[in-house]
Amino acid sequence: MDVVIWSRIQFAMTAAYHWLFVPLTLGLALVMAVMETLYVVKKDEFWKKAAQFWMKLFAINFAVGIATGIILEFEFGTNWSNYSWFVGDMFGAPLAIEGILAFFMEATFFAVMFFGWKKVSPRFHLASTWLTGIGATISAYWILVANGWMQNPVGTTFNPDTVRSEMASAAAFWEVVTNPVAVSKFCHSVTSGWVTGGIFVVGVSAWYLLKNRHLEFARKSMLVGAIVGLVGSGAVMLSGDSSGVHAAEFQPMKLAAAEGLMDGGNGAAFTIVPGIQVPHMLSLLATHDWNGFVPGINDILKGYTDKDGNWVPSVAEKMKRGRTALDALEVYRKTDDPMVKELARTTYLEPNVQYMGYGHLEKPEDVVPPVAVVFWAFRFMIGLGMLIALVLLLALIAIWKDKLGSWKWLLWAAIVCIPLAYLTGQCGWIVAEVGRQPWTIQGLLPVNVAISSLSAGAVKTTFFVFLAVFALFLVIEIRILLRAIRKGPEVELFEA
Amino acid sequence: MASIGRIFTFFRTLYRDGFRNMTWGWPLVGLILLKLFILFAILRVFFFKPAMRGLTPEEKSERVGAALTTKHKPDTLNLLTE
Q1: In DSSP terms, which residues pair with A157 in a beta bridge?
Q2: C-alpha A412: how far from its chain's center?
Q3: Which of A100, A188, A211, A271 is the residue whose CA sits 20 to 30 A from A219?
Q4: Is the peptide bond before A252 cis (omega within 30 degrees of 0)?
């Protein structure tokens, strides 16, 4: 395997590892904030103890997850230095805001949340708990603004002098911040975190019920977890619909790969699994039109007319225009003649710059991502997501009908759904990130150009170092987490 | 200024008393410190040196510009000879 593959594997592993901690942080933050709100509103000590227990698990998850995102930034600088320079202006701003915001919100409200039970009023403490969760959520937004820009690079212009994508104005920054892909990605990711947090609480509560321990705590926690998880599931479906529409608009190849759709058309069917299709459903989901046109892989390769009647060039044509842009960039950078420079920029580079990345491709088929991986990851994501939503709904019904004692199978299902929720989230990211290959930045920069001049051996070494370190920390976290769960909610917490 | 001083004192006391009274949280603090040490004192120093460290912005532009224009296959249109 070459350096590009090793660097991609390393980045994928680091991102997947980071995403083990983020969803539970987002989900548990909401659960404990709801519980503490119940404590403040009802003045019931039970909810305080319940909130404190889930805060303890939140803290363990947070402690192991902290700084795992920083490793991604190391990799940007070492493995993906061309990319880092190319996007510096655009990528740096959201990440800097995220870093500063996360630091200040976490350093203040997180501390009040854990150390301040006897130092501040209940309402101030409640505000701190909510703000800890809100701070984590806002942090996620800035990360996804950066990621969303890579999927749909809006608001920036390529500067041939600096070889960077730059934001020219405050309006451009606003365009980046409100990028529809970033917004739907944010909603989808955060609400999937609520589902993870919800099923985690339901699953742990189910374990207490099976063990006949902490019964009141488990039943009430399960109720809150199931409601948070179900609200999250509904929001995940809505934001998933929006993500599908945006994929159809901005990354049709990703959608075609996720559907394994070779030849598209009007009234396209949605494939549940190979051989079982729902007529017109893909058109409805992708275009919100029963007979809307959805391009397949071959249509995208050959060129097609989109739903608005505009001609989308073939990949071969985009490659030709991309090479023209790169030729022009080369001329622009080599010549000292101002007139030639201006001609290269205005006549050849700027009209073709949106296809610049295509100039690096060797053949049109290079734009097709690994279809089988994306296709099945998409199906696992949807299937497991629906299974989890069903278990959450059944948990609510069981609480309502007082069947928790007799529906043991449901309690086991809830426990099994905890790892499945993580698998669902990872599948979602596989669809999003493998589905956009070969691009680091859609249409502008393919992975083989984004890479630094490194040897595969160097990346391989760090990959295995990371693997060992990550595995060690993961084992430690799971052990601490399980020990805390076994101990149960009666433990006094941070009583300062 | 007085209110800023009060806020500073509040957080100083909060952290001080919080850490003093911490029980099961210590292993987590140890874990965080160990991880930060591995990240910044080992991985960052020995394995993750920024590829363009020490270059000026102009040199970075030059390097990335060269990577963009030399990794592609030139098209039949060659502006240099036109």
Answers
A1: A166
A2: 28
A3: A188
A4: no
Q: At A329, which amino acid appears?
A: L
Strand-pair category, A293-294 with A276-278: unpaired
> Within 10 Å of residue A72's Cβ, how many Cβ atoms?
16
Residues of A in contact with B45 (CB under 8 A): none
**Partner residue opposite A495 with nearest CB, options B21, B49, B75:** B21
pLDDT digits (tens, 9 = 90+) for A13-25: 999 999 999 999 9
Asked if A483 reaches chain B (Cβ–Cβ under 8 Å), the answer is no
Q: How far is A104 from chain B (nearest CA, A)?
A: 12
Per-residue confidence (pLDDT) for residue B12, from 0 to 100: 86
In this structure, the answer to whether residues A202 and A280 fall within a common structural domain is no
Query: How many structural domains does chain A have?
Result: 2
Nearest to A484 by CA among A118, A223, A200: A200
Please give the span between the terminal C-alpha atoms of chain A, in angstroms, as a whole number: 54
Partner-chain contact A473 B35, CB within 8 Å = yes
Q: Are residues A211 and A142 in the same domain?
A: yes
A270 in a structural domain? yes
Residues of A in contact with B38 (CB under 8 A): 469
Q: How confident is residue B75, by pLDDT bands cut at 50, 70 and 90?
A: low
Asked whether the CA dihedral A27, A33, A36, A38 is positive or negative, the reply is: negative
Here the contacts of A344-351 (C-beta below 8 Å, separation 24 or greater) are A344/B79, A345/A160, A348/A324, A348/B79, A349/A158, A349/A160, A349/A325
Closest among A385, A374, A136 to A236, alpha carbons compared? A385
User: Position of tokens 């189910």?
Assistant: A206
Structure tokens at A167: 């934001």
Within this chain, do residues A81 and A196 fall inside the same structural domain, yes or no?
Answer: yes
pTM metric for this prediction: 0.92
Question: Which of B17, B52, B74 lies closest to A115 in CB terms?
Answer: B17
C-alpha to C-alpha distances, A426 to A187, A283, A476, nearest whole angstrom: 16, 26, 21
Q: Which of A360, A387, A408 is the last residue of a domain?
A: A360
- What are the φ and ψ backbone dihedral angles of A443, each rounded to 5 degrees? 80, -15
Domain limits, chain B: 1-48
Which segments in chain A show pLDDT lower than 50? 491-496
Say if A374 falls within a structural domain: no
The Cα B66–Cα A228 span in angstroms is 51
Residue A245 vs residues A69, A307, A326, A398: alpha-carbon distances, Å: 29, 12, 31, 36
User: What per-residue confidence (pLDDT) applies to A496?
Assistant: 36
Task: For A158-187, give one letter per residue: b (16+ CB within 10 A) or e.
Answer: bebebbbbbbeeeebbeebbebbbbbbbbb
Partners of residue A333 in chain B, C-beta under 8 Å: 65, 69
pLDDT in tens, B3-60: 888 888 888 888 888 888 888 788 888 888 888 898 889 888 888 888 888 889 999 9
Q: Are residues A155 and A283 both part of a single domain?
A: no
Which single residue is written with the structure tokens 């709100």?
Answer: A37
Domain assignment of residue A101, given as a range: 3-248+438-487
Query: Closest to B15 (Cβ–Cβ): which among A111, A160, A462?
Result: A111
